[in-house]
């Protein structure tokens, strides 16, 4: 391709964009891995966006009212690293560019929010960024409604590729953004007709323009290499009240021998071709060299937002002290001081009144006292509000004419909900929680993993957590999902036994700063097992002695959730036979593993027969507590599920699968010999 | 709503449809659970479809050339049960209707393909059925191309609701169907404006007509209660070469007090309202009673396809014996006799030549010899063909002008691919396999679970199976995914150590009739560890002694995949110190657990120190082999991952996380004391 016209028409622009292209070529060649084509193809869009529109101060990448930039096509990470280096970001030094994708570098293969302050969100798994962005834009609307546009008033910009748009989650994101008229969300589609397997046409012929319009978006089509068109399109996008998609026709790996080919998508490392491309760009800098004039132009761009930030700080200072404090508190993810006392009061009341309620109802009871004191919570459900018990009286519905509403009807979009919640939390100022059936963890799973990986304290409210679902049958009955959540690093998997443990789980989830929580809750009613009020949060220990043996201790029963009351009933039967039985409640294995050995030994001493009861597969971490922690194979047993469930009334299913007090007693007696 | 006009305009039709409505009301009331609104709302569409269009013989629900009917909105299961009972299905007796959702009934809460022959696919998790249907329709195209339209020529009909269309996976299905012009796929959208949370409008305002058109579909909008419009729309849908969507404007729970409300979506059990609805329908039958005349009309409908089937059998008999045998073989999921010898020959050649190849490459080597002898395999990849090594030379690309092509470019649609593969396998005559990165198991997960639950032997080719991914970093490095697959019932999780085990895994996967397989494969090269040719398939044992201790046996090292060669290297180091070390390769835990105790004891005798090595979390089933199976906590150790990975060259990551021969030796020595 002859770049002469492009170069001559807008030489200043061209050189700034060429800096991104040259750095990308050098870094990918240096790493001998990575993706060259996308940063090269989208360099013009990124240059215009940062030069003319992004409200961004490179010296304060965490400034609350900055515009957000999300690289949904995260494999093109050199685009963001180039931008940050060129603008003078404190973290992305030239050394970091030179160490692209190397051990210990902040410039990882995909952009990681936990490595770089200026990276809003970890992207890489396609479709996530554009869906996170919906959450960012919703958070902005919500906070603007609460604090006024003098304090909150910014855009969310996204670069997405064909991969992002082919992933199903993107449709969920489109639908949400359209439904809620998220006018400050602007998506650039890198429309380059190329995927890894070849021409896009091999796998897709969707009319994306028509598709976005069907979801209520404002759509423009432009030449993605023409800075004038890019600028005008962004201007128009900022004006419309709809979410905007700008289809940018681009050439992947522009000016390189691999331009417009799937090879261009990957790592372009050939030295001669690299030189030829730089020549075509008119680039005079050597490897990793950016001519001083161009670097200084970019550094000016990095400072463009400094004045706006100073003015913002002035306006922020005009807020009441109380508002400032609250704003700072919610952005710091600090729970309000009242939370602890509120939870304690609820626990006391529950221990006294001892209601028999499903833990999903117990969760609602907790939220009824939490939501009024935590304005930063945003609730929601994937079309199961009445079943998930996620809506409390005071929240109000988030809607186009009620941006202060704190409850989101996410629709039948578990994945989009989870990703948008991650985005809300990463935006700052919001603590999102959202519900679905525990079985549909499967749908939300890619976003749940990213919450764990990128340290986002999203709360997943997962009701209907076992065969207790009953008649809906095995498709709706989780058996392996506790195992899935527990195997995922940096995830709290709570399965509370009653309303007290449920309140304790919520307290931990809402004070967590870097760990997401899954709260698995029953459909069916459960008795209160924590009948004696304790000030301390026992769930924080992960597992604890709920009931001590009355006769000589021969048995330890361990259980979580609905099976804790089964264990208590089994204990009664065993004690009646003179078999002393301790019951250990295990609401959160991850937290138990984090305790020191002396505590763990106190809870699980060597010697007694151990039987664990959980209406799920044993693979969910039980071997570690049955056979490890001083256990012995010949004295250990499990009462739970060995396969999928079935369709029948719940009570019959527990009988059918032997997850009963009697089944537990039989297992204990078999082990006692 | 006044139903008088509807009743009087088409009285015969009305009564037939009313039978579905009345049975639905009775069965849901009897079960005191279920979903009434959808079967009632879509009764007219279903009646016209079966009366005038479905090629279906109730006496032969597995006839290969029948039209397929897929209830994607599976919660409306009483629709399908009513139809089957009315038409005289041998399994769905009146007793089954009376036992709807009860223990042991074939009429489960959601339709289960493993309970009823006439249920094509287990549905319930929304969005799956419509995506399975894409696989059904692709399978029909493929087999029609292979066998001719005299033998294969049928439609796939789907009923989908708003939930199905809001789930992201539906967009992947739409894109695939549009791209491949699946003209024999017809989707009825139950356009009733209601979801569980209330009016659809609460969560979605998508213009579905425009959206389907954007994906290349033929779209019609009709009154879903007008049999004339329904009939005409189906006629038109059958004529177009595009996939068809018929938007059926319906009233959920038509004629019931809960009509047009979200309450109507659920279980309508009020006796008075039930009676009022039946009165409005002009229904004279008592509970579970269908007037004889109406029942007999429905039974005629059930027999409509009998002649067509007889004619088909005549045409089938005209095929060459060889073609008939192959057709019968592939529909019976029987592998060709040659498969076993082919695998053995490959194993022998590998054991002799001892290549150092990535197991993803080894998988390609296996497919290169398998695909030519198994015409029923259909390969594909979610836009990672060159990385997943799933395409062999002979397959050809499935395309609109090459329906004989056996390779599908699925695009960046892991979920849609997995669901469509399930559909292909359930259609019959196809053994689908498809590739993506192992980490993106997450995206495909809901369909992978359904493969396990509904006993579909789909093969998931999951490459880049650990931190061996290298520079792409933690978003692309699975650590918990082996645990996820192993915790899922009825799933073979293979992680082969070299090209021999890879060939063995493929043999098991392609002879499995009821269990899906996940084959986890490396990106990086691995030495051949099976250097001595064995005729028998050792992978079938799940775990086996790969190398016996030379000195006195003090240690057993267990490993899978890439870590088996690490174990072998550690053994060399230990033996050099005089520490006798057995190496046990564990390519498939599920199969090892299925062995009898004497075999398991032979492989894992009590006594020696045991160390397991796997570049993944210990939760992936290792405790059972380390601490169970006669193991002891104080003599057991694990070398693997404790959290997420990082971005760096792969070799450096194995060093960083200590997953090396030296790390293993250190762990062993610590345990030996």
Automatic annotation (TrEMBL), chains A, B:
**Which keywords does this chain's UniProt record carry?**
Calcium, Magnesium, Metal-binding, Thiamine pyrophosphate, Transferase
- EC no. given is 2.2.1.1
One GO MF annotation is: transketolase activity
Task: Name all Transketolase-like pyrimidine-binding domain ranges.
Answer: 357-528
> Which SUPFAM superfamilies does the annotation name?
Thiamin diphosphate-binding fold (THDP-binding), TK C-terminal domain-like
**Cofactors, names only:** thiamine diphosphate; Mg(2+)
Q: Which InterPro entries match?
A: THDP-binding, Transketo_C/PFOR_II, Transketolase-like_C_2, Transketolase-like_Pyr-bd, Transketolase_bac-like, Transketolase_BS, Transketolase_fam, Transketolase_N
Q: Which reaction does it catalyse?
A: D-sedoheptulose 7-phosphate + D-glyceraldehyde 3-phosphate = aldehydo-D-ribose 5-phosphate + D-xylulose 5-phosphate
Family of the protein in this entry: Belongs to the transketolase family.
| Subunit composition and interactions | Homodimer.
Query: Can you say what this protein is called?
Result: Transketolase
């Amino acid at each position: 391709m002859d770049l002469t016209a492009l170069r001559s028409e807008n030489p200043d622009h061209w050189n700034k964009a060429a800096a991104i292209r040259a750095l990308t070529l050098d870094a990918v060649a240096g790493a001998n891995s990575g993706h060259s084509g996308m940063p090269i193809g989208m360099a013009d869009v990124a240059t215009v966006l940062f030069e003319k529109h992004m409200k961004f101060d490179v010296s304060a990448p965490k400034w609350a009212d900055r515009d957000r930039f999300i690289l949904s096509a995260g494999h093109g990470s050199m685009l963001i690293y180039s931008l940050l280096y060129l603008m003078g970001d404190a973290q992305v030094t030239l050394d970091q560019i030179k160490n692209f994708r190397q051990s210990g570098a902040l410039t990882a293969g995909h952009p990681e929010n936990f490595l770089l302050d200026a990276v809003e969100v970890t992207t890489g798994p396609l479709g996530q960024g554009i869906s996170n962005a919906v959450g960012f834009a919703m958070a902005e609307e919500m906070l603007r409604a609460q604090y006024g546009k003098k304090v909150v008033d910014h855009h969310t910009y996204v670069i997405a590729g064909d991969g992002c748009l082919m992933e199903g989650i993107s449709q969920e994101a489109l639908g949400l953004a359209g439904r809620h008229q998220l006018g400050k969300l602007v998506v650039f589609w890198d429309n380059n007709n190329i995927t890894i397997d070849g021409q896009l046409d091999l796998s897709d012929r969707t009319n994306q323009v028509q598709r976005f319009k069907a979801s209520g978006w404002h759509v423009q089509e432009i030449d993605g290499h023409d800075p004038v068109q890019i600028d005008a399109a962004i201007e128009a996008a900022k004006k419309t009240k709809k979410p905007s998609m700008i289809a940018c026709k681009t050439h992947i790996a522009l000016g390189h021998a691999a331009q417009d080919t799937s090879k261009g998508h990957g790592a372009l490392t050939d030295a001669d071709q690299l030189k030829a491309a730089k020549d075509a760009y008119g680039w005079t800098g050597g490897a990793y060299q950016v001519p001083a004039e161009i670097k200084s132009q970019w550094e000016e761009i990095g400072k463009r937002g400094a004045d706006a930030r100073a003015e913002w700080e002035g306006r922020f200072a005009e807020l009441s002290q109380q508002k400032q404090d609250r704003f700072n508190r919610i952005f710091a993810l600090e729970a309000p001081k009242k939370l602890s006392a509120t939870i304690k009061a609820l626990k006391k009341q529950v221990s006294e009144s001892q209601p028999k309620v499903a833990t999903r109802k117990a969760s609602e009871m907790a939220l009824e006292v939490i939501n009024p004191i935590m304005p930063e919570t945003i609730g929601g459900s994937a079309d199961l509000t009445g079943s998930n018990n996620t809506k409390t009286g005071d929240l109000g519905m988030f809607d186009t004419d009620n941006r202060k509403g704190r409850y989101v009807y996410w629709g039948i979009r578990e994945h989009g909900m989870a990703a948008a919640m991650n985005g809300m939390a990463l935006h700052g100022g919001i603590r999102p929680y959202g519900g679905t059936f525990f079985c549909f963890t499967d749908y939300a799973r890619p976003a749940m993993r990213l919450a764990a990986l990128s340290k986002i304290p999203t709360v997943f409210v997962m009701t209907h957590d076992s065969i207790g679902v009953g008649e809906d049958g095995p498709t709706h009955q989780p058996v392996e999902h506790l195992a899935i959540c527990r195997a995922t690093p940096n995830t709290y998997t709570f399965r509370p036994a009653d309303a007290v443990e449920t309140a304790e789980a919520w307290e931990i989830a809402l004070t967590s700063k870097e760990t997401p929580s899954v709260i698995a809750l029953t459909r069916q009613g459960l008795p209160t097992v924590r009948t004696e009020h304790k000030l301390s949060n026992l769930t924080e220990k992960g597992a604890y002695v709920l009931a001590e043996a009355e006769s000589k201790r021969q048995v330890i029963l361990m259980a979580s959730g609905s099976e804790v009351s089964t264990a208590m009933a089994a204990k009664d039967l065993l004690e009646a036979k003179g078999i002393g039985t301790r019951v250990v409640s295990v609401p959160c294995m991850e937290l138990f593993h984090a305790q020191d050995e002396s505590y763990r030994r106190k809870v699980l001493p060597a010697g007694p027969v151990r039987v664990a009861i959980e209406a799920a597969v044993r693979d969910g971490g039980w071997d570690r507590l049955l056979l490890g922690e001083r256990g012995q194979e010949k004295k250990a047993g499990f009462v739970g599920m060995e396969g999928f469930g079935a369709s029948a009334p719940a009570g019959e299913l527990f009988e059918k699968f032997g997850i009963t007090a009697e089944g537990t007693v039989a297992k204990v007696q078999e082990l006692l010999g």
